[in-house]
Fold this protein.
Amino acid sequence: MADKILVCDFGSQTNRLIARRIIEMGVKCELIDHENIASHLEDSDVKGIIFSGGPHSVYEKGAMMIDPVVYESGLPILGICYGMQMMTFQQGGVVKAGHSKEYGKTAMTLIESSRLTQGMSLGTQVWMSHGDHVSVLAPGFKAKAYSYNTPFALIEHETKPWYGVQFHPEVTHTLEGLVLLKNFVFEIAKVSQLWRAQDFIEEEVARIRDEVKDKKVLCALSGGVDSSVTATLLHKAIGDQCTFMFIDHGCMRHEEGAWIKKTFIDERGFNLVMINAKKRFFDALKGVIEPEQKRKVIGNMFIRVFEEESAKLGDFAFLAQGTLYTDVIESGTKTAQTIKSHHNVGGLPEDMKFKVIEPLKTLFKDEARQVGLELGLPYELVYRQPFPGPGLSIRVMGEVNEESVRIVRESDRIFKEELIAFDLYDKIWQSFSVNTNVRSVGVMGDQRTYGVMVSLRAITSLDGMSADVAHIPMDCLLQVSNRIVNEVAGVNRVTYDITSKPPATIEWE
Ligand code: XMP
């Protein structure tokens, strides 16, 4: 088993970034709801706890507070921003609503040595984002660093392994934030057992065998990273006891079906059933234009096809899904707002009789990728860009049919080929083309054209929650545009979407 750091969620935008920084150190990390802390304290793998930042004030009615039992656990604690203010408040200090809000980069000066700041410069840049601040320290705490606006930028308890920072060490604008987090994890929490994909696989294979025994399992395989890693893990654990199903809804990327067949049937011998349901999906999508309606039609049809086809294959006791830890957190977030219904196609109908197996549900994406590589899946698959369950349908504005999807599929293939040629594909979180369903006048040869406009979208992101426009060199864009209008029949204009998320979302629908 691996040592673990817990990150208690108090609602900060950057709490997942904290977890990511820890995972990048090779250390197991769990982002937990702050209300559940007590149930984790018995776990001997937990070596340290981080309280995340949050948008609230400790004096607000209903402000989130950690169960004080955590202070009796003896475990090292690092409070970040709100986390530090809450710890101060609970330990008898005073937090003041800030007249002088601090936001952005600021200089911090170390006053005294601390185990938390070993290896950091005396003067360093940190990133602040707070209105409230600690005005009187709780008994036992000492200031170890100050910034222009706060005398308590970094505090430490004199006898207990408790630390607080008013700034955000997890963001890159805090230049030495990683040094600080490493000090907390390795020097203070003394993490020594790192997380290893190989151990995870051994444990999970044993657990799956133990749970499934001689019963049959069904696993939906979409070709995405999560379902591919899940499928390969199951195949390793129980071989042909698991039946895999790929449903082609007609909105897949270029030659996706052939690629899946080659990767999983030809090269790995999976017991994989390929269902061609294109016609059913296109029939159901006739005349559907409204984005949410489109998603619902696809989601419902997927479930229907899945149920019908699985019934033909026999009785299954279990259904395997590629749920990741981030999916669990996201669906569990109390404050999350539904912007789009991300019903993951391949998701579970509520009234199904199967028992669910979700072998990756404790892993973040990076860890799932490591497991995939360790299981021998090719790099190109493991590092594929995310692809939405409803597929290309939500990249076609207006009605989805063979023709409107063809335009998006062909232009998407060209965009990908050129990004690879320009060595940009791996640097981008997601890139795709959109059939805008807008027509405009053009001229090709001596002929007037009245063709479709395709828009290209490429973004960089950490987790898809927010996104920046990728800075693709004009040469590359021109080459893509040139190829698309020449090679994709019906297209006479190409644009590049230069909107970040927010305010736009990544997908157009
Ligand atoms: P948006 O468009 O909401 O997308 O900014 C954020 C990320 O989620 C992906 N996405 C989906 N993934 N089923 C999925 O599995 C869906 O219905 C879905 N809709 C959006 C999107 O591609 C991006 O990575």
